[in-house]
Design goal:
With 304 residues, the chain is an alpha/beta fold. Helix content is 38%, strand content 24%. It contains 9 helices and 18 strands. A hairpin with an 8-residue loop joins strand 14 and strand 15 (228-229). It starts with 6 loop residues before the first helix and ends in a 12-residue tail after the last strand. 41% of the residues are buried. Bound molecules: adenosine-5'-diphosphate and N-acetyl-L-glutamyl 5-phosphate (X2W). Residues 34-37, 66, 68, 194, 213-215, 218-219, 222, 245-248, 251 line the site of adenosine-5'-diphosphate. Adenosine-5'-diphosphate binds at residues 34-37, 66, 68, 194, 213-215, 218-219, 222, 245-248, 251.
């Protein structure tokens, strides 16, 4: 690969990153790493390299991970099933135990270990730790009707202090989307990781929320993949929301919640493409779908 890039081109690439490094140095970027983007070991390593690159150059990355396919695999091994309603897993007490075990015991541990192979700054947290999250049970809304999905919650409160203190200590927080049930002392709820990431991004005053998934971005006429939307506003997205399907429904609700919470930019990017995160942040072109608040469009210098 390096043989094919001339020294001038290499210098050009380095120079292109400079204004972006300046722009994002010191800023918090929340990265939602979806279970569908954790395809294989080399991709996971590329993800870890990108996070470490950001951290090395003074950006303050916070990782919120998913693990839907990994939970499915464990449920299948145990002969259990937990279907989804509008992108939310129907979670019984038995399923909740597996969700917690896989997210905290497997996915989070693997990510922390991967990030700490080159440096020792990554630390795992879940919603119960230091009161990070509180959640309340919520139904799935299917065709405007509530459907009971069991022990599924939405975040009602974020205590950003433990994450901020890790960031101030130079650490990389890696967060699992399990949260205490505020109505049931000792109980825990399964929270969609997109929704957890967006609540956290708002509470942290993040500059960007990046969502790494297994599609190039948001397509206009799903399941047709010919028209990728490269940029849209929250107002445009709100109009599309009722027609959203499967995993994209909570993801887009999460994007809107993040924008409503003051995060200036949300990006949906293809986590199957190595280094898509760096391309998004550090090149002029960007990749995937960028969603911004319509009212912020008048201030283009903010939306870069
Ligand atoms: N309009 C759309 N554009 C892109 N993907 C869509 C759309 N509507 C539904 N999807 C589905 O949403 C999926 C991404 O959501 P999800 O499976 O929850 O991913 P993740 O595990 O990364 O959170 C895609 O793989 C695709 O099947
Ligand atoms: C309520 C709910 O559906 N929770 C999700 C939590 C994990 C998640 O969101 O993982 P992805 O980001 O990989 O989809 C689940 O049980 O699968």
């Amino acid at each position: 690969m390096s043989d094919r890039i001339s020294p001038q081109d290499k210098a050009g690439i380095l120079l292109e990153t400079m204004p972006w490094l300046r722009r994002y140095s010191g800023q918090i970027v929340v990265i939602k790493y979806g279970g569908n983007a954790m395809v294989d070991e080399s991709l996971k390593r590329a993800f870890a390299q990108d996070v470490l690159f950001l951290h090395q150059w003074g950006v303050r990355p916070v990782v919120v991970h998913g693990g839907g396919p990994q939970i499915n695999a464990m449920l299948a091994r145990l002969g259990l099933e937990a279907p989804f309603e509008h992108g939310l897993r129907v979670t019984t007490q038995e399923v909740m135990e597996i969700v917690r075990m896989v997210l905290l015991g497997k996915v989070q541990r693997e990510l922390v270990s991967l990030l700490n192979q080159e440096d020792y700054q990554a630390m795992g947290l879940a919603g119960e730790d230091a009161g990070l999250f509180r959640a309340r049970r919520t139904p799935a809304w299917v065709d405007g009707e509530p459907v009971d999905v069991g022990l599924v919650g939405e975040i009602t409160h974020v205590n950003a202090a433990p994450v901020l203190s890790l960031l101030d200590a130079g650490r990389i927080p890696v967060i699992s989307s399990v949260a205490p049930d505020e109505d049931q002392p000792g109980g825990v709820l399964n929270v969609n990781a997109d929704l957890a990431a967006s609540a956290l991004a708002g509470a942290l005053g993040a500059e960007k929320l990046l969502m790494l998934t297994d599609v190039e971005g948001l397509y206009a006429n799903w399941p047709d993949r010919s028209t990728l939307i490269s940029r849209l506003t929250d107002e445009e997205l709100r109009e599309m929301l009722p027609s959203m399907e499967s995993g994209m429904a909570p993801k887009m609700r999460a994007a809107l919640a993040a924008l409503d919470g003051g995060v200036p930019m949300v990006h949906i990017i293809d986590g199957r493409r190595p280094h898509s995160m760096l391309l998004e942040i550090f090149t002029d072109d960007g990749v995937g779908t960028m969603i911004t608040a319509a009212h912020a469009e008048a201030f283009p210098e903010v939306l870069r």
